[in-house]
Specification:
The protein is an all-alpha fold. It has helices spanning 3-37, 45-48. The longest helix is centred in the middle third of the chain and has 35 residues, at 3-37. It comes from Salmonella enterica (Salmonella choleraesuis).
């Protein structure tokens, strides 16, 4: 195998590896975005007991 074919083979492998890395990162980010989109904030327990932080005076 001459030098140019060897270099071309290395470049093709690097391009393929880069494509796989981009694909994996995209899937991970889509999973994170989906998780954030489905986020349900917890119910505020302090307000359920009649406590309001704005009514507390600091002296």
């Amino acid at each position: 195998m001459d030098k140019s074919k060897q270099m071309s083979s290395i470049m093709n492998r690097l391009i393929e590896l880069t494509g796989w890395i981009v694909l994996v990162i995209s899937v991970i980010l889509l999973g994170i975005a989906n998780h954030i989109d489905n986020y349900q904030p917890p119910e505020p327990t302090a307000r359920a007991h009649g406590f309001r932080p704005e009514e507390v005076s600091v002296r």
